[in-house]
Give the backbone structure.
Amino acid sequence: MRQTLRIGTRGSALALWQAGWVKTQLENRWPGLRVELVPIKTSGDKIQGVSLAQVGGKGLFVKEIEEALLGEMIDLAVHSMKDLPGELPTGLILGAVPEREDHRDVLITRHGETLAELPAGTRVGTSSLRRQALLLHLNPNLQVEMLRGNVDTRLRKQSEGVVDATVLAAAGLNRLGLMPARSHLLDDQIFLPAIGQGALGIETRLEDEVVAFVHPLHHHATDIAVRAERAFLGRMGGNCRTPLAAKGDVDNDRIHLRALVASPDGQRLIRGEHEGPLALAEQVGATLAEWLLARGGKEILAELEAKD
């Protein structure tokens, strides 16, 4: 049995917290095991000042880490699930999906205003086209501005007046203990989260003994929900240039999935929902994608592809 495992991770405070949490869980579960963190700078970390949509999408946050995993320079990788593209490279699998943190988005404003209370012209920072589309759909008089950077960087930029408000994931703020006092959790029935938001993915090599080490961290209900969401993403053919959202909920032996596709300006937004047995979670996701594509989603995607 291995005595040491190497976890590949991005070097941001949040990524290191997440990898550190997995390290602690593994060392507690397997006495005598030594777990090392191996920070890896990804293309997404190196490229700042432009939106992800312009430089290749969210896969930029995992590419170098997955290459290190395939090259056996690390033994496993810890990702924010929402950073993972719809398909994993050949030879890699999700060895475990731990229990999900809060999946919702948080609106942070200077004076504690709600989204509806923000006056026309308010500068809201985000680098997410999903958040941009939902913000403009719900309040078209807002001025959405690109705001890249880690959680603490974006909070600092708001405090410096670069923007008046920002939208961040509750999970990251909770994990880092940075939830501001003047913040509002956005209703996920309206402000649907990113696919996989709040969940972690522990990536391993296929048929590697490391899978047995990480399996005790696996949370079945979270895995089922994320499988449905990612199947939706895969069938939509979505990427960071596509405003997509989805959230799966497990209730006894059923999976219920809500999803949407939108134009970046928020003027067109198509919502839908579908449910089915847990064993057919991925089929539920693909079926809902087909439903949205047939009701205008295909036209939205075609227009976005034409602009690339």
